[in-house]
Automatic annotation (TrEMBL):
Residues 8-85 form the Phosphoribosyl-dephospho-CoA transferase MdcG N-terminal domain. Keywords: Nucleotidyltransferase, Transferase. The lineage of its organism: Bacteria, Pseudomonadati, Myxococcota, Myxococcia, Myxococcales. Residues 89-202 form the Phosphoribosyl-dephospho-CoA transferase MdcG C-terminal domain. InterPro entries: Holo-ACP_synthase, MdcG_C, MdcG_N. This is Malonate decarboxylase holo-[acyl-carrier-protein] synthase. It comes from Corallococcus interemptor. One of its GO terms (molecular function) is nucleotidyltransferase activity.
Length: 219
């Protein structure tokens, strides 16, 4: 694999010898499902790593169309190539037509804030695999990486406004932090004293003040 190490919510394609590079041996049924998925030319989602994981390993997830979730722990060398999360623009054609106006508003919000809006969850799986994942009550899981805290505030205000305008689909997702952690945008909008942060390895509660301090000072 060339390039930067894949991170949570990225997508990876496994090489032909992946089964010889597993680090936590999966059951026979998991091997069968993963093999079939890979042979169809489909990717896997990068999952949160565990604190004890070696740097040369990667945890992956495979959510099957029936909602069964499989986990895989492999050597980093098992990865043939990887992709970033798809953008809202990329997945729009894979979404139900009724979601179009809401997604267009999200695209416009991202453009106004100069943010690339990524997508994970069921809509991303549907887009990446071509298999059916999205259901009538599915959420849209969005991914944002603002560079400044003022952009976080503008983003939350904009997302709440878009959500009020479009009740046909629930907008969910995460705000990525400068240290690699991630928080639910809906939880962050409530401005709680402490908020649960999913890090590159493990998860822990942090204060809102700690989150603000991760961003560069602004004049």
């Amino acid at each position: 694999m060339d390039g930067a190490r894949p991170v949570r919510h990225d997508w990876v394609y496994l090489g032909a010898g992946w089964a010889d590079q597993v680090r936590s041996p999966p059951g026979p049924d998991v091997v069968t499902q993963v093999t079939a998925w890979r042979e169809q030319g489909r990717p896997f989602a990068v999952a949160r790593q565990e604190p004890e994981d070696a740097d040369d390993t990667l945890r992956l997830g495979l959510t099957l169309p029936g909602r069964r979730h499989l986990s895989l722990h492999v050597a980093l060398s098992a990865v043939e190539r990887h992709l970033p999360p798809p953008t809202v623009q990329e997945v729009r054609a894979s979404a139900p037509a009724a979601w179009g106006p809401a997604l267009d508003d999200v695209i416009a919000l991202g453009s106004a804030l100069d943010l690339t809006v990524g997508v994970f969850g069921s809509l991303a799986w549907q887009h990446r695999s071509g298999a059916p994942y999205v259901r009538p009550l599915s959420d849209v899981d969005l991914l944002f990486a603002p560079a400044r805290w003022s952009d976080v505030e503008r983003l939350l205000f904009g997302l709440e406004a878009v959500s009020r305008r479009h009740s046909v689909v629930r907008l969910d997702g995460e705000v990525l932090l400068p240290d690699g952690g991630a928080v639910s945008w809906r939880e962050l909008a409530l401005e709680p004293e402490r908020i649960w942060v999913t890090g590159p390895r493990g998860a822990s509660p942090r204060t809102l003040r700690e989150l603000r301090a991760l961003f560069p000072a602004e004049p």
